[in-house]
Amino acid sequence: MSTIPAISRSHMSKLLEQELDASKQLKQLLVAEQQAITGRDIPAFEEILKKKQLLLVRIARHEQERLNLLESAGIEHGAAGMDEYLK
Question: What is the pTM of this model?
Answer without folding.
Answer: 0.79
